[in-house]
Design a protein that fits this description.
single chain, mainly alpha, Arc Repressor Mutant, subunit A, two-stranded antiparallel ribbon, about 60% helix
Length: about 130
C-alpha cells in the first residue's frame, strides 16, 4: 500500500530536513548551529515540532534532550520530491525532465554519466518487457 504524501515543506523546513539527513539524530541546538542566519532557539524548536506534526520527523528523549531524525530515508524523500517536481514542472513526464537536463549546457555530464544513464534505461526497458 503506498504511503500518504506528506505535506510540502517551506524553505526553512527544507533546510532543517537537509541538516537532519546529514547529521541525525540532532538536538534543537545542533540544528540551530547549522542553520544559515538561524532563528531563535524557540523558533527552531517550533519548526521541529511542526515537522514532526507533518510526519517528516520523530524524536527520542535522551539525557533530558530531544533528538530528532527524519522518518523517511533521504532516498525515499528524494524520490517523493522528484515526483512533485515532475508533476509541477513537467506534467509528470520523466522524458521531458531528462530532455531539459540533457539539453542544458550547464549539465556537464561525463561520458561515464551518459553510459550509466544508458545502462539504467536499458535495465528499465528489460524489466518492462
Amino acid at each position: 500500500m503506498p504511503r500518504k504524501a506528506l505535506p510540502p515543506l517551506s524553505r526553512r523546513e527544507r533546510e532543517i530536513m537537509d541538516i537532519l539527513f546529514a547529521h541525525a539524530p540532532a538536538s534543537v541546538a545542533d540544528v540551530q548551529d547549522r542553520l544559515p542566519s538561524p532563528p531563535s532557539y524557540s523558533a527552531v524548536r517550533a519548526l521541529l515540532r511542526i515537522l514532526e506534526e507533518k510526519g517528516h520527523l520523530r524524536h527520542e528523549e535522551v539525557g533530558g534532550k530531544y533528538l530528532y531524525e527524519p522518518v523517511a530515508s533521504r532516498e525515499s524523500a528524494a524520490k517523493s520530491a522528484l515526483r512533485r517536481v515532475l508533476q509541477t514542472f513537467f506534467a509528470g513526464s520523466l522524458e521531458k525532465a531528462l530532455a531539459a537536463t540533457l539539453t542544458d549546457a550547464r549539465s556537464r555530464l561525463t561520458q561515464a554519466d551518459y553510459q550509466r544513464l544508458a545502462d539504467l534505461i536499458e535495465s528499465a526497458r528489460k524489466k518492462g518487457e
